[in-house]
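Can't paste images in this forum, so I'm doing it all in text. The chain is below; anyone willing to post the predicted structure tokens underneath?
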Amino acid sequence: MEEILEIRDGCTTPSQLLKSKAFSKFLNIYKKQFIKELKDRENTDLKDDVFILLETKIGKSKVICGLMNFAFMGGSMGRAVGGGIVKGAKTALEKKCPFVIFTSSGGARMQEGIISLMQMPRTVAAVELLNQNKIPYLVVLTEPTTGGVTASFAMLGDITIAEQGSTIGFAGKRVIQDTIREELPIDFQKAEYLKEHGMVDIVCHRKDLKNNLTTLINHIT
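Text version of the structure:
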């Protein structure tokens, strides 16, 4: 039976975030639009933010599982996501079980300014805590996983699985082409391209994902 874990790490929900004095200093020209969007979502089925943390089972193995919800502001990473990943890492360490994250994100949430960028080293530190204590950390990259999420916790898994055909990268393909002034391969930043170049370990279709995860977790635990 899966259990949704509460994330308690400072200003994590939109309502808490909006009341934070520190956060108000970083709001920019998007302030009114950002506040309206957060308030519109508060009483919906989209939870409090992008990140949902679960204690559940994959096969017969207990795991802590983090899910990123792209329907909430494009899965963008703000303080709530950082708090969720830290909470997940600490819970996995406490319960001595694997931490599995499913990513789907456009990157750092620009409306939170520098606070969202600070989540990159924060989440990296959380992953390092798992490494130091030999707790398995698995990442499943889904469509899309980009920006600051790719540049931090998403690419640090002990085993990294990418969903077939998913887009994975940092900057956009057109931005890179305009910068280097070269044509990039048609499958650039696709899961299969990344596996071919050693950036991910496994590429699989969603229907095979459960079996693959079950096999991997049984093997490493």
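The mean pLDDT is 87. DSSP finds ten helices and seven strands in the chain.
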